[in-house]
């Protein structure tokens, strides 16, 4: 094809004509560009292939002009590109509704039974107490193992003691006979009595044993027994007649304080021994029912029976020998005078309370709080005698037919008790601990309270007739009683 034919073809294709007479600029790099497709709304037209030549450096090209290069002598055989068609996106298919089973199957349709796989057995849900919200079955405790236990404790406790009137007095030599040993006189000193006795600390022991009745350790039984050594206070004094020793009393006939001489110069020689003793014993058996527990602690309800014994005794014994005519009896006559007051308080009642324990590794703390309600049987025994020259007669000084006898009565009483302890785990089945206890009995009869210091001297042996007031009397006084102290113990579990 000639250049003229090429120019004509370019003009037919819509390219501007290029003058053949003009000098041609140096060839520039060409860039083949595919014409953009017409708008979708325009009728279809085949794409036009043209060459766009970059303008030479420094040339001024109008914004509306397009610099085009001469078409090549030979055009490549490029197939026509169809115009891009708009892409139609198919709508997402609407999911079919789930098939619903018919409300009622026809009678003639047989539906094969589908076997249901066996479900794994679920563990039984734990049960809980409605009030505390704690499980009814306890896990294995982290304390000592074993369902049987025993405890041995050494006790060091003190009680409230008993009140005593003055029982033995002394006075310096030279004291007038009428004032010798008489209460209220400036020369009289009380040697025994006039205060509380048996309120000192004393040793004792307690034994406790129990067992769990079921594997869950929610039901068990426990029993205990304790005793304190007998507390004893007293005095023993004697003289050959050179010292002044007396036993004071109140002369009910004359209405003034008086005294019976035990030793006085030229009158009598002798000795006086006075003792006050007290003893406490207790025990009980209870059922245990778990209220709350976890791996390192538990709280149990305690319900059972409680026994408590408190016993006192006060005795005074005189051994006298008349020295001369001033004694108003034959010199050398002997007298043995005995007074004895004894009380026994036996409490029987039902107990209810709680006990608990908490463990922290090898250490543990525990406690018990309970109250017992019941009756106490109070027995008071008063007796005395006077032996003159080998002949015995009823009654001593503070014991006469007016009050000698055995008295018994029952009364309501309350026994609250508090116990605390803390200790250390020594081995898997043994531990040691220390503790504190407080125990209270609301109604008791003490021996010292049953002594009436009022005496009618006309009733003293040897008595010829009964004249004047019938005293001493039985006071029938009651009070309360308490114990408290510390303890050291060992516990074994099997």
Structure summarized in a few sentences:
The protein is mainly beta. It has 1 helix and 21 strands. Residues 73-83, 92-104 have a biased composition (Pro residues).
Overall description:
- It comes from Urbifossiella limnaea.
- Residues 73-83, 92-104 have a biased composition (Pro residues).
- Keywords: Signal.
- This protein is mainly beta.
- It has a domain at 151-493: Lipocalin.
- The chain contains one helix and 21 strands.
- The strands form four sheets. Strands 3-8-9-13-14-15-16-18-19-21 form a ten-stranded antiparallel beta barrel. Strands 5, 6, 11, 12 and 20 form a five-stranded mixed β-sheet that branches. Strands 1-2 form a two-stranded antiparallel ribbon.
- The longest helix has 10 residues, at 3-12.
- The protein is elongated and about 170 Å long.
- The protein starts with a helix and ends with a strand.
- Residues 1-23, 30-44, 47-55 and 58-67 have low confidence and may be disordered.
């Amino acid at each position: 094809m000639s250049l003229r034919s090429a120019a004509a073809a370019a003009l037919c294709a819509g390219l501007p004509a290029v003058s053949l007479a003009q000098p041609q600029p140096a060839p520039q790099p060409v860039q083949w560009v595919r014409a953009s497709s017409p708008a979708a709304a325009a009728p279809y037209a085949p794409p036009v292939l043209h060459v766009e030549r970059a303008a030479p450096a420094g040339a001024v090209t109008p914004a509306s002009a397009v610099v085009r290069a001469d078409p090549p002598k030979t055009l490549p055989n490029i197939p026509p590109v169809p115009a891009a068609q708009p892409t139609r996106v198919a709508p997402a298919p609407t999911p079919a509704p789930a098939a619903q089973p018919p409300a009622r199957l026809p009678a003639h349709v047989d539906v094969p039974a589908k076997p249901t796989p066996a479900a794994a057995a679920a563990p039984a849900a734990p049960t809980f107490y409605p009030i505390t919200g704690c499980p009814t079955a306890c896990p294995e405790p982290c304390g000592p193992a074993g369902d049987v236990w025993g405890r041995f404790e050494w006790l060091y406790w003190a009680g409230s003691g008993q009140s005593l009137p003055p029982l033995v007095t002394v006075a310096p030599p030279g004291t007038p006979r009428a004032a010798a040993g008489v209460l209220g006189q400036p020369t009289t000193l009380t040697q025994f009595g006039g205060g509380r006795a048996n309120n000192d600390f004393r040793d004792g022991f307690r034994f406790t044993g129990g067992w769990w009745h079921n594997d869950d350790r929610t039901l068990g039984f426990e029993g205990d027994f304790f005793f304190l050594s007998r507390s004893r206070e007293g005095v023993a004094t004697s003289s050959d007649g050179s010292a002044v020793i007396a036993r004071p009393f109140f002369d009910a006939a004359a209405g003034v304080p008086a005294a019976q001489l035990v030793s006085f110069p030229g009158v009598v020689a002798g000795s006086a021994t006075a003792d006050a003793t007290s003893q406490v014993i207790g025990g009980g058996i209870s059922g245990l029912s778990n209220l709350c527990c976890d791996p390192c602690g538990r709280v149990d309800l305690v319900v059972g029976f409680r026994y408590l014994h408190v016993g006192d005794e006060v005795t005074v014994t005189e051994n006298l020998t008349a020295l001369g005519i001033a004694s108003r009896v034959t010199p050398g006559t002997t007298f043995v005078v005995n007074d004895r007051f004894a009380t026994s308080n036996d409490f029987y009642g039902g107990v209810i309370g709680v006990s608990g324990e908490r463990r922290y590794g090898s250490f543990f703390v525990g406690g018990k709080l309970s109250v017992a309600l019941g009756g106490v049987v109070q027995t008071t025994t008063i007796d005395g005698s006077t032996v003159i020259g080998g002949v015995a007669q009823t009654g001593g000084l503070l014991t006469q037919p007016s009050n000698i006898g055995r008295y018994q009565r029952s009364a309501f009483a309350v026994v609250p008790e508090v116990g605390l302890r803390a200790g250390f785990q020594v081995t898997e089945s043994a531990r040691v601990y220390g503790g504190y206890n407080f125990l209270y009995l609301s109604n008791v009869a003490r021996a010292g309270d049953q002594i009436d210091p009022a005496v009618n001297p006309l009733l003293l042996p040897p008595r010829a007739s009964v004249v004047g007031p019938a005293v001493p009397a039985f006071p029938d006084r009651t009070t309360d009683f308490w114990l408290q102290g510390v303890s050291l113990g060992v516990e074994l579990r099997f």
